[in-house]
Specification:
The chain is an alpha/beta fold. Among the domains are: 3-74 and 96-180 and 273-347, FAD/NAD(P)-binding domain, CATH 3.50.50.60; 406-502, no CATH class. 29% of the residues lie in helices and 29% in strands. The protein has helices at residues 17-27, 53-62, 65-69, 109-121, 171-176, 238-241, 244-252, 299-318, 330-352, 357-373, 416-420, 452-461, 481-492, and strands spanning 8-13, 33-37, 50-52, 72-74, 78-82, 87-91, 104-107, 126-130, 133-139, 144-150, 153-164, 180-196, 206-210, 216-220, 225-231, 259-274, 278-279, 282-284, 290-291, 406-409, 412-415, 425-428, 439-442, 466-469, 475-479, 501-502. The strands form five sheets. Strands 1, 2, 8, 9, 10, 11, 17 and 18 form an eight-stranded mixed sheet that branches. Strands 6-5-13-14-15-12-16-19 form an eight-stranded mixed sheet, with helices on both faces. A hairpin with a 5-residue loop joins strand 24 and strand 25. Helix 1 runs parallel beside helix 4 (109-121), helix 1 (17-27) runs parallel beside helix 8 (299-318) and helix 8 packs antiparallel against helix 9 (330-352).
Length: 505
């Protein structure tokens, strides 16, 4: 397959939130991208309902944060209560985090997906093809030939790389092999999404009702919407619990007034991770690579982190700025992060899913005792920094998400990422001559003036003269500017060059 035969640099299979974000991240940087999806329309009903500050920061990078925000509301308190309503544990939201956004948002997925599709439609390097289905693919040393069926019949799409974002039953994952690692957590739940009608009184918190008679979750969705999840009990079948009368009986306990049921479905909540995320020029992202129970609200978030991690690496390789083995750092960075969140979600699920009354009573006593002493009842909610991958291991802050200071006041707020722009950043305390393909600046830079105190505080806390921040806003490492530039070039697999982008003061 010659370069002249390529239809695009990257073929993205699947156009849910992860595939759309992946395609947009690539196309906005001029990487030619074809994105296909077997459906011709966005799925019109809610699925995911929560994303966090890191994902809103990604939407900021894509230029869709404002459009997405119209379909969100701030995450409320997250309560765990016993069958009699006793508060066992409460997680309180942060209205602002060090990363430029609130700790979390509840949202309506169709609106979010439309914002991403609209962004894609505005990018000349993106080619969206709806109603196209992948049937097979073959790859060689230079690219991938994908066989697809579209509205006009069979066709072949040739790309340098293929990214499978095609969901839990991924055809791409099946084709590259490797199998799945199974956490052996498999619980059937009834999911009911509702919209409020005039006079409705929806709950104002996210809730896990730890009731052995019927473990139940109730969480906010987008504006005017709510979701309940009811664990199926032994002997119950999907057919039985999907009956309207059965669902009305479950909702009656909540006395919410008039509601419109928009979706009801039975899902199996489980934890799965693909053993292989890459086979040469074919990679996986999102549910294709991992699936998590919903208790921590991190399923879609994890997939979108995949997109942010992989997109800049693909761009660097395709532009000749990095060797292809940079892509080998994708799974080692993302898999431990994903597994931490799956294990957190399973830990939450095991707290909730107790059906034995005696065991549930013991759990309640333990959680109340922990609450009195301030001891956490669950594992830490945030994964540890990357331990390996494209980082300067052993330096302070390496592998952690870099902060995003804000200047200004509400209504006229400017965030660091908007000022610094795309690509890698090398921020140092003092002017220096360094080498590397990145934006290099120091704290005397006039454009950094509003953020200088926060960046100085970060550098001081990490005892660092300079920091190198990757394009996905994770810290590559800290040290002197010259040593960081040289280490960055080495991590990308190329010799240092005097090609840094300098910001004019």
């Amino acid at each position: 397959m010659s370069a002249a035969t390529f239809d695009a640099d990257v073929l993205v299979v699947g156009l849910g939130p992860v595939g759309a974000a992946m395609a947009a991240l690539l196309a906005r940087r001029g990487v030619t991208t074809i994105a296909i999806d077997k459906d011709t329309e966005i799925y019109p009903l809610p699925r995911a309902v929560h994303f966090d500050h890191e994902i809103m920061r990604l939407f900021q990078q894509l230029g869709v944060a404002e459009a997405v925000a119209r379909h969100t509301r701030p995450v409320p308190a997250y309560e765990f209560r016993s069958a009699d309503g006793t508060l066992l544990m409460q997680l309180d939201p942060q209205p602002e985090t060090p990363f430029g956004w609130a700790s979390g948002y509840m949202f309506h997925q169709p609106g979010l997906e439309q914002a991403l599709r609209d962004r894609l439609a505005a990018l000349p390097a993106a080619d969206v093809r709806l109603g196209w289905r992948l049937t097979s693919f073959a790859q060689d040393g230079v690219g991938v030939a994908a066989e697809v069926i579209g509205p006009d019949g069979a066709a072949t799409i040739r790309a340098r790389y293929l990214v499978g974002c095609d969901g839990a039953s991924s055809r791409v994952r099946e084709a590259i092999g490797g199998g799945l690692s199974d956490y052996q957590f498999d619980e059937p739940w009834l999911v009911v999404d509702v919209a409020a009608l005039p006079g409705a009184r929806l709950p104002e918190v996210n809730l896990q009702l730890c009731d052995p008679a019927r473990p139940t979750s109730g969480v906010l969705s987008g504006p005017g919407r709510h979701r309940w999840e009811f664990m199926l009990l032994p002997g119950e079948t999907p057919e039985t619990v999907l009956e309207p009368g059965f669902i009305e009986g479950l909702l009656a306990r909540w006395d919410c007034g008039p509601l419109q049921i928009q979706r009801r479905a039975v899902y199996r909540f489980h934890g799965l991770v693909a053993n292989r995320w890459r086979l040469s020029r074919v990679l996986l992202a999102g549910d294709s690579a991992h699936q998590t129970p919903p208790f921590a609200g991190q399923g879609m978030c994890s997939g979108l982190r995949d997109a942010a991690n992989l997109a800049w690496k693909l761009e660097a390789v395709l532009r000749g700025q990095a060797e292809a083995n940079l892509l080998d750092t994708y799974q080692p960075e993302r898999e431990p992060h994903v597994r931490t969140l799956i294990e957190l979600a399973i830990g939450m699920g095991r707290v909730v899913c107790m059906l034995d009354p005696a065991a549930a009573a013991a759990r309640d006593r333990d959680m109340l005792a922990r609450r009195r002493t301030g001891e956490p009842s669950l594992p830490p909610p945030r994964p540890a920094p990357f331990a390996s991958g494209c980082i300067l291991a052993g330096t302070a802050g390496a592998g952690a998400l870099f902060s995003q200071p804000i200047c200004g006041v509400a209504g006229d707020r400017v965030r660091l990422d908007d000022v610094m722009g795309d690509g890698a950043w090398l921020i140092s305390r003092r002017p220096t001559s360094c080498e590397g393909d990145m934006l290099a600046c120091d704290l005397a830079d006039g454009s950094l003036a509003p953020f200088r105190p926060a960046i100085e505080a970060w550098l001081h806390a990490h005892d660092a003269p300079a920091v190198l921040v990757r394009p996905d806003r994770y810290v590559f490492g800290t040290g002197t500017a010259a040593s960081l530039a040289a280490a960055w070039a080495g991590a990308l697999g190329r010799a240092p060059e005097r090609s840094e982008r300098r910001r004019e003061a």
